[in-house]
Each structure stands twice: as C-alpha cells, then as structure tokens.
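Hi R.,

As promised on Friday, here is the backbone we talked about, encoded as structure tokens. Could you run it through your design pipeline when you get a chance and send me back a sequence?
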C-alpha cells in the first residue's frame, strides 16, 4: 500500500489527477468511480484538465435503491453534476436504483463488470470502513448485490436529505470482489473524522468487519490522505 500524505483535500485532488493521468498514459480504459464528498476535489481537477475521456468507460460503485435517477440525491445525479456534464465518457454505468428487481439490476451490473474489467478505481471510505456500500460484514468474495445500509451510514448521509427518515435504507453496491479485481486502486480520505478509519485501513487486521482492510492484500493501492486523517498512523 502506497501512502501519500498531502496538506489538504485540494492537494489530494491534484495528486489523484497525476495518478489518473499516469494510468491513462499506461492504457487505462475502464475507470471505476465513487461518490461522496471526498472525491470532489479530484473530480474538479479532472474537470479543469485537458483530458478527453470520451473514448473511456466509467463504472460507478453504487446507487441508493428506490431513488429515481434524476433525484438530486441519487448517485446518477451526483456524477452528472460533479463530472459527466463537463467530462463525458463514451459509456457511464451506475447501478439502476430505480429498478426494484434486485436480481435483474445486480445481474446486469455484474455482467458489465465482467465485460469491462476496471483498470483504475477511485474510492472513498466510510468511517466504519465501508467501501462502496460494502458495510462491515460484507464478504470479501461479494459481487454486486442489494445491501442494507447500517444505522451509522444512514446517520452520516442524513445531512444530504431533508431528514434521516428520507435516507434510503438499501443500496445496490459493487461487491468487495468487484472492487479488488481493479488493477489499480486510489483511495482518498480527509479530515479528523476519518482518522480512525485510516488507522484501521493501514494498520488494522484484515477482516470482513472492516471491509476496506482487504486493500492491504492488493498489489496496487495508493491512499491519498491529508495530515489530519493521517494523525493516528504509527
Ligand atoms: C458513501 C459512499 C461511499 C463513500 C462514503 C464516504 O456512503 N457510498 O462510496 O466513500 O460514503 O463519504 P464521504 O466521502 O462523503 O465521507
């Protein structure tokens, strides 16, 4: 695991762009994308770059269930606003949270992932160690499926909704296996409230109780963290 400590999220976004450009120069075609507040500085750098992504494919990690694709809190909408409006890809995939047929929605997504292996995967991390929406206890061999969001995640994401009651309770998420199948992974984490998660990610036991810990076993992972998030590391 390569660790890059930066001053702040702005600098983290710039570092992320360097790694992304490097991957593209080495032939990356399929890019795994994440939502959340953390990757936004990276997306801003991509938007301000002269990169042309119109012949690339993007595949997002997850989507809330039961939320229309044009709902302002959907991850479809997030990606459109934060990246795709300015930097369109040839094809962009996000799980179809509006499809109530779990088997169909997740099966189709797993097929997309099989046909388009991810070259470069962006990740954030939840304070409980979730990546995508793979909450603690997610099997390391999991693929895209419907997942229950934990009370901690519902509470953490309530800030984006009018009230906690409006936060979806389920999501379709790529599984841990889909994520770790990516050739290269870059995870961003910033701020004091990610300190404990970063410590477990880097120095903790590899366990399904802390899903992101599996990244310790991957041979091409870089974590980009700011000084605050790195404060508990030995
Ligand atoms: C969400 C997303 C994750 C993201 C995490 C952290 O639940 N499904 O992909 O990494 O929250 O979000 P933030 O970057 O806003 O802290």
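Update: got your reply. Pasting your designed sequence below so it's all in one thread:
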């Amino acid at each position: 695991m390569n660790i890059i400590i930066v001053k702040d999220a702005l600098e983290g976004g710039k570092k992320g762009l360097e790694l992304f450009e490097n991957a593209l120069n080495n032939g990356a075609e399929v890019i795994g994308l994440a939502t959340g507040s953390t990757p936004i500085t990276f997306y801003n750098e991509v938007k301000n770059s002269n990169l042309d992504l119109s012949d690339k494919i993007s595949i997002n990690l997850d989507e809330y269930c039961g939320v229309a694709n044009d709902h302002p809190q959907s991850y479809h909408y997030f990606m459109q606003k934060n990246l795709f409006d300015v930097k369109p890809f040839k094809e962009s995939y996000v799980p179809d949270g509006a499809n109530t047929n779990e088997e169909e929605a997740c099966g189709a997504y797993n097929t997309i992932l099989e046909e388009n292996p991810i070259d470069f995967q962006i990740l954030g991390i939840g304070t409980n160690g979730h990546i995508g929406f793979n909450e603690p206890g997610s099997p390391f061999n999991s693929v895209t499926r419907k997942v229950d969001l934990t009370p901690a995640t519902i509470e953490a994401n309530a800030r984006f909704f009018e009230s906690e009651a409006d936060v979806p309770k389920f999501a379709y998420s790529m599984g841990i296996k889909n994520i770790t199948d990516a050739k290269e992974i870059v995870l961003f984490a910033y701020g004091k409230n990610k300190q404990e998660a970063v410590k477990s990610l880097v120095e903790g036991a590899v366990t399904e109780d802390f899903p992101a810990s599996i990244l310790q076993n991957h041979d091409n992972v870089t974590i980009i963290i700011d000084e605050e998030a790195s404060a508990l590391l030995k």
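One thing I noticed while checking it: The pocket of GLP is lined by residues 34-38, 61-62, 124-126, 132-133, 153, 157 (CB under 6 Å).

Thanks again,
M.
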